[in-house]
Amino acid sequence: MELPPKFKDLERKFPKGMEVTEGIKLSDLQERIVDAIKDSPGITQTEIVSRLNVPKQTVSYTINNLVNSGVMETVRDGNKIKCFVKA
């Protein structure tokens, strides 16, 4: 797909061969988090931290980005935040 001239600068932001219409390319950590959530829907952030051995702040930041991009959603259950991947 050829992009209009005003969008040519976007080509530099995507890996070669990847079109803008293909959506978001997840990082390795994002993929690992999404896989953990798919394996255990409703998993908490604390459980993801333990399972992946990643700092809590990193998991929280990454989950926020995934929620904002529409990949997943979180639901508060008391003092826990449960994670679900959107269909």
Quick overview of this protein structure:
By secondary structure, this protein is of the alpha+beta class.
Characterize the structure shown.
10% of the residues are buried. The longest helix has 13 residues, at 56-68. It contains three helices and two strands; from the N terminus they run H-H-H-E-E. Helix 2 crosses helix 3. It has helices spanning 28-39, 45-52, 56-68; strands spanning 72-77, 80-85. It has a domain at 33-87: Winged helix-like DNA-binding domain superfamily/Winged helix DNA-binding domain (Arc Repressor Mutant, subunit A, Orthogonal Bundle). Strands 1-2 form a two-stranded antiparallel sheet. With 87 residues, the protein is of the alpha+beta class.
Estimate the global geometry from the Cα principal axes: globular
Alpha plus pi helix count: 3
What is the CATH architecture descriptor of one domain?
A: Orthogonal Bundle
What's the total number of strands?
2
- The end-to-end span amounts to 27 Å
Radius of gyration, whole Å:
16 Å
Classify the beta-strand content into a percent band. Answer: 5-15%
Residue stretches low in confidence (pLDDT < 50, at least 5 long) are 14-22
Helix content: 25-40%
Class by alpha and beta content: alpha+beta
What is the strand arrangement across the widest sheet? 1-2
